[in-house]
Amino acid sequence: IFERWLRRHRPMLEVYPAANAPIGHNRENYMVPFIPLYRNGEFFKPSRELGYDYEYLQEPALDSFQEFLIPYLEQARQIWAWLVGAAVTGGIVTAVLTWLILACWKKRRGTSSEIQPLLTESEDYNNISYQSN
């Protein structure tokens, strides 16, 4: 399992903690009770660098891009209904929230006669004409 993880992620040695790990688990601590003594960081290498290889972990050559995509397409085929349902539900929720926000904004922004001031400023009062056309 560790070898698969190393091959998939190819981490650098600096990823292995140099400090603040549980006692005996830092990069420079010795592996106990193994003899001869080796540091933990020395085993943070793929097996190929240590001189051996696992046959069952050898990476098969991909013949085409299609073979690379097949596992992902199979997963997408299994969950497509859930994805469509989530998209539709999200669209409906977004539309309802947008409608509510716009309705509240229009209601608050509306200028009705009840909101208009009853008295005008003295400068405006002189310019008002009460004659009708």
Automatic annotation (TrEMBL):
The keyword Transmembrane helix applies. The keyword Transmembrane helix applies. The chain crosses the membrane at residues 79-102. Keywords: Membrane, Transmembrane, Transmembrane helix. It comes from the Eukaryota. This is Tyrosinase. It comes from Cathartes aura.
